[in-house]
Write a structure and sequence with these properties.
The mean pLDDT is 84. The longest helix is centred in the N-terminal third of the chain and has 16 residues, at 2-17. With 78 residues, the chain is an alpha+beta fold. It has one domain: Beta Barrel (OB fold (Dihydrolipoamide Acetyltransferase, E2P)). A five-stranded antiparallel sheet has the order 3-2-1-4-5, with no helix packed on it. β4 and β5 (73-77) form a beta hairpin. The chain is globular. The chain contains one helix and five strands; from the N terminus they run αβββββ. This is Protein of uncharacterized function (DUF1344). Residues 1-20 form the signal peptide. InterPro entries: DUF1344. Pfam families: DUF1344 (PF07076). It comes from Aminobacter aminovorans (Chelatobacter heintzii).
Amino acid sequence: MNKIILAASAIALMSGAAFASSAEGVVAKFDPAVRVITLESGQSYSVPRDVAIPSIQTGEKVSIQLNDEGDKVQGVLR
């Protein structure tokens, strides 16, 4: 019984790892000096220096790509 539960858990973890999370919304504020994007929903994202940020302005819709855990920005798309 334990082997079945362990196998099912492993399969569930592997299938979830294929999906990176993302957040979409309209830019409420962007501070390029500290690389923080704030969406109209109130969510703020700090973009690491190794991630390119396209030219974005307040009012534009963006998609913020996050790692599997949802705690690190991996990309910003317009």
